[in-house]
Write a structure and sequence with these properties.
The structure is a single chain. Helices cover 71% and strands 2% of the residues. By secondary structure, the protein is an all-alpha fold. It has a domain of 197 residues. A two-stranded antiparallel ribbon has the order 1-2. The two termini are 38 Å apart. The relative contact order is 0.08.
């Protein structure tokens, strides 16, 4: 048995509608996975630039200098605490009139240790200052390159996602028109693709629309305008599709393919006066204008316009 039937006479069953909805859900699951996978694949395919040996050396030199300066600051704090402790012990012994020669030596040693720590800190701070310009320039170059790389990644991701959305919309349109023209029982599944393509395009639009507009400000208005434009385009495409189907429907109802006036078995339409029967271009047998195929030889015939 052929799976191609007149779907205008045989309505879609509830089971077919349910399966079409289930298919749309699974298509959406796969589409969302692909939507995120594009992001992961592009970012892994376009990694950030590694630092050159000179840049890495400059950055490392600054990091080492900073570490030495931090350690020198800690040493200065410890030396200051030791100096204050020895000074207080020496002063207490002097105030008490006790022998303080040993305490004085410890105090002087702590003072020299504090001076050495401060000198080391000054040297570490100077080394850090000397290493900072080259390291800062290297980090700035890496940051600029990383920013440009992120911009390229975002552009590639956007173009791929936009391409997917456009491809899905075109696929949905082709399936819808082809299956409808053929009268296939698979036609309800084209609705699944239409629903999936619509939701996917909406996700892409909202995802990138909110990057440039406040969704609670002008973003909602822009989304509404975009939706109106897309709906109008879809309506225009539907009208073109219906215009191609209209002559065949009129002939099926024994109407004039041009104006829709009832013609019965007449050769000319009583409404517009045009011929409604004409010889077949292949076999010259009479055939109804507007039919898809010749009834004698089966040759496919061109569409008829009612304009």
């Amino acid at each position: 048995m052929s799976e191609t039937v007149d779907i205008e006479q045989l309505e879609t069953t509830k089971s077919e509608k349910l399966l079409a909805l289930v298919l749309a859900v699974f298509l959406l699951i796969g589409g969302i996975w692909a939507y995120q996978e594009i992001d992961d694949e592009v970012r892994s395919a376009l990694p950030a630039r590694e630092a050159t040996p000179a840049e890495q050396q400059a950055i490392t030199r600054l990091a080492d200098a900073q570490q030495r300066r931090i350690e020198a600051e800690r040493a200065v704090r410890r030396a200051r605490e030791e100096l204050e402790l020895r000074r207080e012990a020496y002063r207490t012994a002097l105030d008490a009139g006790e022998p303080a020669a040993a305490l004085r030596l410890r105090y002087l040693a702590a003072e020299r240790g504090h001076d050495r720590a401060r000198s080391t800190l000054a040297g570490a701070a100077g080394a850090e200052a000397a290493a900072r310009p080259a390291a800062t320039a290297a980090q700035a170059r890496l940051a600029d390159e990383a920013e440009r790389r992120r911009d390229r990644q975002e552009l590639v991701i956007f173009l791929l996602r936009l391409g997917m959305a456009v491809a899905f919309v075109l696929l949905a349109y082709l399936l819808l028109t082809r299956l409808r023209d053929r009268g296939s029982r698979w036609f309800p599944l084209s609705g699944s693709v239409v629903l999936f393509a619509t939701v996917f395009a909406f996700v892409v639009g909202v995802d990138y629309l909110t990057d440039y507009f406040d969704p609670f400000d002008a973003g909602i208005l822009l989304l509404a305008l975009l939706g109106v434009a897309v709906t109008l385009v879809a309506f225009w495409l539907l009208q073109r599709y219906l215009a191609r189907r209209l002559p065949l429907r009129r002939v099926r109802r024994r109407q004039c393919p041009y104006c829709g006036f009832p013609v019965g078995d007449n050769e000319r339409c009583e409404g517009c006066g045009r011929l409604v029967t004409a010889p077949c271009a292949q076999c010259a047998a009479p055939r109804r204008v507007g039919t898809a195929f010749c009834g004698s030889c089966g040759k496919a015939l061109g569409p008829v316009s009612d304009r």
